[in-house]
Here is the input.
Amino acid sequence: MQDETPHPAANDTHTSSYAGRWVARVRGKVVAQGGTPEQALRAAQTTRHKEKPEIIYMPAPFSLPPLIDRIKGLLPPEQEICLVGGAVRDLLINRLSRDFDFALPSNGISFARTIARQLQADYMTLDDERGTGRVIVTEPDDSRIFLDFASYRGDSLEADLRGRDFTINALAYDLRNDTIIDPLEGASDLRAKRIRACTPASFSDDPVRILRAVRMAAGFGFQIEKNSRELMKQAAAQIGRVSPERLRDELFKILEGPKPDASMRALEMLGVLPHLLPELTELKGVEQSPPHVYDVWTHTLAVLGELENILAALRVGYSADNTTDLFTGLLTLRLGRYREQFAKHFAESLNTDRSMRSLLFFAALYHDVRKPQTKTFDEEKGRIRFFDHDEQGAEAATERARAFNLSNDEIQRLRAIIKNHMRIHFHTSRMEGEDKSPSRKAIYRFFRESGEAGVDLTLLALADLRGTRANTLTQETWSACLDVCRILLENYWEKPEESVAPPRLLTGDDLISGFNLRPGPVIGDLLEAIREGQATGKIETRDQAISFAREWIKENPNGTRNT
Here is the structure.
């Protein structure tokens, strides 16, 4: 080998086709190429074994983020270090990344501490055993960039890369000489939009990679290579070896990302569901009466897809001119004025590791989970019914959420969504059939039962309706549901003090001292009755609240007075 240093190769007419590759040249002519210097040399020797080729690197046309350039300037001249994995992949396809992984021969933790000091950034140890430290850089806008420094997993950089999950993540960028190391042809798979396992043992070594492959395929719009799909099927039964927390994290990333319906269908086809979400396997083939056009499982997937479309149409910056779909146009017309409020709702979080959006999609995934167990046939009406599937579904979803170690706040929100997901459909039927809008009492009780989940319920109801009727949905039914949702959201966001959360006129102490009542549940019952009276417009002043309390006590004398 004559030369392994990068060259601009300005005189080579094929430079662009070899960008990011190592090439072997003989007398100025490219005779072989590879993802590493060694591969280029071996390829050249098969045809030019008597000649000594020149091995050079053809630069790839991308620019490094300023922070990475800054880190390069801090490196000791002799330091062997590479940017690796997804960050290199994202650079090659011009995607913005805020997570950067670095690999070096040893001392990842001490090196990370040094970089943290030099950048005046925060530091934390991620993995003592594997020598991994994290540097957290906080930007002026309070956003954060994560820099992970890890010692090689294996005896060399190439061994480290070959032990990774997918070839498009088995890429390295050498910070010393600005070259790419690509032993598994990951860049080629990246150009072909293909996800391919690094080794036949990739999925059996770590079965959570099955979920990751599905997530990446949806996120990038890539296809999973056929042999890798077969390996995923073979390893599906080993999902149970993975900790619930890792499975949860990958699942919620799938639900947060694009095409959650296609992703869940892929997991079903790969045989993953029985080992990940066993309750959902029973939904397949469960028949439903009209207006449902699908079985329960297909309906569930349709709801995920419709929910994604609805959220996209209600995002800040969306223009109604972008659609020719009548139903989406009506959606933006009726609810588009709440784009900022929806954005704020989903910007809030019940857990720093998971978004409100992903929790809503998890609720959508489980909203009909107990239909198989509650299925009955009404002989008189000739209809399939699912009585109490909402209540029972909330319990089943809670069990799964606890198995995944979701927080109590997340579980409470999940329960509220699934338990109440039929309420808007009831009001939609009344609106369409009887032209009756939700009353102030109904609005108050809806939000009393659901709280902040009421916002999620409007979106789920709309997706549920479209996922129920598909192309049989009429403009009249859709408009009725939109009107119900608009009324609910209008009260919640524009006049909450009227019918959602009226200001308290009396306290528990007022009732105890003013009416000689003893403390107990009755105090809460009376306060709630007063508040509902305010929401319905029957009580507007403190004096009216006192008069109401006096009459209420007369009608409910047992257990109210001190003795």
Notes: The two ends are 101 Å apart (CA to CA).
